[in-house]
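Marked as duplicate of an earlier ticket. Keeping the data here for the record.
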Amino acid sequence: MPADAAALQQRFHALYRDHHGWLQGWLRRRLGCEARAADLAHDTFLRLIGAPSRPRFDSSAEARAYLCKTAHNLCINLWRRQEIERAWLDTLAAAPEAHYPSAERQSMVLQALEEVCAMLQALPPRTARAFVLAVVCGMGDDEVGAELGISGRMVRKHVARAMLGCLSLRARQTASELRLGPEGA
């Protein structure tokens, strides 16, 4: 192992040793669940390992601030997924039992909803809102424009921009799947 890789590994091990327990406790207090806290603490360190540029911390306070910010973002993602799942389960509960999709189909729908949610979060707020009102709620361009205080023509531009975002997300996923291969390895 090259010297710089060994030094990086030692820094990471020291960071993990010094802060993992503290981070897990911080997450446990926020989430109220030991298992979720353990999972998110682990995921936080995985994010750090996978980061394109690994930050150097001059103090314990800097390291903890970085870990808190990363863990907080992971909490937000968790809460979004839970909100989407609750909405999906509410939709299923309102449907007649004969129309329930299979467990596999439910999982696929939840994954698709999470992907669309992530895509919408990446868009400017007005673009995301126009997309939801027009596509999800089925409102016309003029109705959406009145809601957002913009013209119907601008609504079409926002919806087109959101659609391009969806296509871009799908293209990135397809490229990622091609790189990983059929087994995901």
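See parent ticket for discussion. The CA atoms of residues 103 and 109 lie 10 Å apart.
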